[in-house]
Amino acid sequence: MSTRVLICDDSKIARKQLTRILPTDWDVEVEYAEHGQEALDILSSSVFDILFLDLNMPVKDGYETLEALQSFTQSPAVIVVSGDVQPKAIERVKNMGAVAFHKKPAEADELRALLISLELFSADQNENHTNTHVVTAAEQFSLNECLQEISNIAMGRAASVLANMLNVFIKLPVPKVNILEVGELQMALDYSVKEDSCSAVSQGFVGSGIAFEALLIFSDSSFPDMAELLGVTEEITRELETELLMDVSSVLVGPFMQAIGKQLNIDFSHSHPVLLGQHVKIKDIINAKRTTWKRTLAVEIVYEVENYQINCDLMLLFTEDSVATLENLLSFLAEDE
Amino acid sequence: MKESEGLADFHWMFDMLHHIDVGLVVLNTKYEIQLWNSFMENHSGVSSSIAKQQSLLTLFPDLDASWLRQKLDNVFGLKTPIFISWEQRPNLFPFKSYRPITGVSDKMYQNVAIRPISEPDGSIKHLCLVVYDVTDIAVNKTALSTANARLQRLTKALSK
Predict the structure, then answer these.
(1) How far apart are CA B105 and CA B87, in angstroms?
(2) Which residues of A touch B106 (CB under 8 A)?
């Protein structure tokens, strides 16, 4: 009898990638769910052996799904596959009943070794078996899906660096990808930064025909907690605030960009980060009257630190002429995996 | 032991020059590109493997060739560095600004220094172009002059 596997991930690319790297000599029957609730619905009506579970998903995330599974009488072995590689995330899912954690994107050899070590798969069981789950190459991915997935992975890496440095847990949302016009960008910023005043740092990146800015916006009420987190006890002056901003933005943007560059295989040149404003209104950060661009491709990620009042919004703003190049590059990426 | 140390030095030096946030180009006497660092690669979109051995003047056909040739020849002939300010040629290389979204300029303003590179025997067979991004300085200075001019006009109008 074949092993029944359920893959739960909101990203189509991630589902496809994982399917591709399952051992080829493994007799499996694969089904898919796009979020935790869908997985739970499927699992409550039929029995599966293994569930590959992503953590950051809409509707019901991985943690909520694990929690709900605890009340199931017959639940599958859960392997969490996530870009969120923070030690606390790994510890948390294991405490909630996951048998293993695997970083994303997973590699075939590593996954094989993991499955063997968990005794979920033995290599000699069906030596001549060829896979039944052939994924059609015609599957198309939109630019948004690709960008969302690579941002997801990059976001996890960045959070892990920060979490290690500060020994905290960073809450990761699903990145939002949109094409925005000048006014819409202001509205989007206005919406995500709910406070009156904020501070922002921007750093430019360029490489292989792709140009974008990484814009990091902190709400001003984050400063006291940010200082506490970084172990700063002195009185918070303007200079100290700048230092906190620069430090946190280096730590957040650096590993994120490294992960993006690695996935796209581009060694980006980057400018020195520029302080766009301190204690300013969000709408003044982007001067709508003086801009010459019309539209931008924006990836928005809202980082939150658990138990701290720290809110920061990371926006990757791609220029319009980068979109075609990016599309081209990402389509290769989706094909190759 | 010494040789491997030398190799490590070379590796550092190369990594540093390749990734520094300044454009570096080395040309021979035929204006053919011998070195093209990552700043030049990333901002021009032309990779080092394509740029190498091509003439700088053919790689950028929009450059004012006779003007630039004269500058380069001067450096070879006089064995002295010469400088091109953003105030005389705002965008020698057609690069875009680093911060196209939150910045004010969509072009990169550049200061360019052209320096002779001497061989061990003192002769000059190569020269180096150093390209600095001075967009922020240029934008600020332009804004300041505009504001000053406006102030002057206002003062005149008031004193009448």
Answers:
(1) 15
(2) 292-293
Residues of B whose CB is below 8 A from A213:
99-102
3-class SS shares of chain A: helix, strand, coil, % to 5: 40, 25, 35
CB atoms within 10 A of CB A158: 26
Model-level pTM? Answer: 0.73
Question: Which runs of consecutive H residues, i.e. helices, occur in chain A?
Answer: 12-21, 36-45, 62-69, 87-95, 108-117, 143-166, 182-192, 223-229, 238-264, 282-285, 323-336
What distances in angstroms separate CA A166 from CA A226, A228, A231, B86, B158, one per listed residue?
10, 10, 9, 44, 59
How many H helices and E strands in chain B?
Answer: 6, 5
Q: Are A62 and A80 in contact (CB under 8 A)?
A: yes
ipTM higher than threshold 0.85: no
Between positions 269 and 308 of A, the ones with CB within 8 A of B are: 269-272, 274, 276, 285-287, 290-293, 296
Q: Which two tokens stand for residue A132?
A: 């039944």
Instruction: For residue A296, count CB atoms less than 10 angstroms from its CB and return exposed for 0-12, middle for 13-18, buried for 19 or more.
Output: buried
pLDDT digits (tens, 9 = 90+) for B100-141: 888 778 889 999 999 999 999 989 999 999 999 999 899 888
Per-residue pLDDT tens over the stretch A9-47: 887 778 888 888 888 888 888 999 989 999 999 998 888
Residue B131 three-state SS: strand
**Beta carbons of B10 and A173 less than 8 angstroms apart:** no
For residues A290 and B74, the answer to whether their CB atoms sit within 8 Å is no
> Do A271 and A204 meet the contact criterion of CB atoms below 8 Å apart?
yes
Residues facing residue A217 across a β-bridge: A200, A313
Dist CA A310 CA A218 (whole Å): 8
3-state helix, strand, coil in chain B (%, to 5): 45, 20, 30
**Do A303 and A252 form a contact (C-beta atoms < 8 A)?**
yes
Nearest to A271 among B41, B98, B106 (CB): B98
Tokens coding A153: 């992975």
Whole-Å CA distances, A114 to A7, A107, A124, B10, B153: 16, 11, 16, 41, 76
- Contacts (Cβ under 8 Å, ≥6 apart) of A84: A55, A56, A155, A156, A159, A160, A172
Interface probe, candidates B46, B50, B99, chain A, greatest A C-beta count within 10 A = B99
